[in-house]
Structures are given as C-alpha cells and as structure tokens.
C-alpha cells in the first residue's frame, strides 16, 4: 500500500524557533508555500502536523492559521480544518469592487504626505517589474508598489484591509500572469499612476487606479469564464 503523501514534506524548518517568533514565522513560511504553489489549492493543513514540524505548541499554529484565513489564503471547513483557498473564488469580483473603494481612500489620504523617497521607492519597484521574469516575484513587486503609494495613510486598519486584497491578487498573478499577458500593460498603468501621484493630482491618480483595477476585473472575469468552460458537460 502506497504511503500517504504528507503535504508539509516540502517545507523546511531550520533550527528551533524562539517562542516569541513562533506565530509570525509559521505564518510567513506557510504564506510563502501557498503563494509559490508548494501547498496547492484544496490542501488540508492539520494543526498537530504543523506543531510537530515547527516544534511548537498548537497555540501559535492556531494564531498563524487565523491570520492566513483573514488574508484569504485559507478556508476553515468543518470536520476538515484549515484548507488552502482557491486561487479565485466566486466573490472575487466583489473583492475588486471593495478594493477600489479602500485603495482610492488610502491613496487620497496618503498622497499629500508622500515624499520624494516614497516616489523613488515606487519608481524602483516599476523598474524591477520591467525586467523581472520570475512570475512568483512579479506578484510581490506589484503588491509592494501599491503599498508604497498608500503607506502614509494614517488609518492602519484601512491599510490592513488593503493588504489582504493585495495578497489575494499577488497569489492570482503568480499563477496566471503569463496567460493574461498583463506584464507590460501593468507597467504602463503603474507609470501613469506614479506620474499623477508625483504631480499631487489626487483625482487623476484615483481615476488611473480605477482603470488599473478594472483591468484586474477583466482578467478575473476571463479566468472564471475559462474555468466554467472546463467543467464536465460543457
């Protein structure tokens, strides 16, 4: 009888983890494994298996899983526990509508407070996106670019909600950017957004952000349509 595959077998843990870093370390390791596909959609993750792998109690494991659930990377299913969430769910279009509201507000609050250093950081992420060929890194750079423009917004709860949406998009981009052929187009959008931001033109910046996110809506719509076409009987 074949041995049952352990979904955690390709996750490496180096040395004991200090107790005060246990939750954040587990969260980061699992997030990376989900984002790069080592933990595939639908994979069940057991608390006790994680506790044994990291050499910790189940308490920091539960806390880490709760954080990943809040970020949309895990779903908690009755009698099955934590399960890696689908790349795109049926409410993903609603998520983009919410993202526009949240990110537009953060941009309005942050933009007047941005410095030349902030603009230089944002430009640096664009330059990195122009030459980066590793799709797993492109998603991260895209998220960091947007967060740079929002980071001076004083409402930290707003920024936390935005980060959740950006992480969801990062995961989707990692797996589907090549098929969507969005790479260069995204940088044109980013450059226009940065240009308006540097001119302190809030309304033009928000309008450019809206156009940029609308392209994401179109990509999600296309992806969901292609998935339905693959269903049996179609």
From TrEMBL:
SMART domains: FCD, HTH_GNTR. Residues 20-87 form the HTH gntR-type domain. SUPFAM superfamilies: GntR ligand-binding domain-like, Winged helix' DNA-binding domain. It comes from the Bacteria. Keywords: DNA-binding, Transcription, Transcription regulation. GO terms for molecular function: DNA binding; DNA-binding transcription factor activity. The keyword 4Fe-4S does not apply. It holds the Pfam family FCD. This is DNA-binding transcriptional regulator, GntR family. It comes from Pseudomonas taetrolens.
């Amino acid at each position: 009888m074949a041995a049952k595959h352990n979904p955690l077998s390709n996750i490496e843990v180096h040395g004991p983890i200090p107790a005060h870093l246990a939750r954040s370390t587990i969260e980061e390791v699992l997030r990376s494994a989900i984002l790069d596909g080592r933990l595939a959609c639908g994979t069940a993750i057991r608390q006790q298996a994680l506790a044994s792998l990291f050499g910790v109690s189940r308490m920091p494991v539960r806390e880490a899983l709760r954080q990943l659930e809040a970020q949309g990377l895990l779903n908690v299913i009755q009698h099955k526990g934590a399960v890696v969430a689908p790349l795109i769910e049926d409410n993903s279009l609603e998520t983009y509508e919410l993202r526009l509201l949240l990110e537009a507000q953060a941009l309005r609050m942050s933009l007047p407070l941005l410095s030349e250093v902030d603009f230089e950081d944002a430009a640096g992420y664009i330059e990195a996106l122009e030459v980066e060929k590793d799709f797993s890194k492109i998603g991260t750079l895209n998220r960091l670019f947007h967060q740079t423009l929002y980071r001076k917004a004083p409402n930290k709860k707003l920024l936390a909600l935005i980060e959740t949406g950006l992480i969801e998009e990062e995961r989707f981009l990692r797996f589907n950017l090549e098929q969507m052929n969005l790479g260069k187009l995204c940088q044109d959008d980013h450059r226009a957004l940065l240009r308006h931001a540097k001119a302190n033109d809030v309304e033009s910046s928000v309008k450019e952000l809206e156009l940029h996110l609308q392209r994401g809506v179109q990509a999600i719509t296309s992806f969901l349509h292609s998935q339905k076409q693959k269903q049996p009987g179609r």
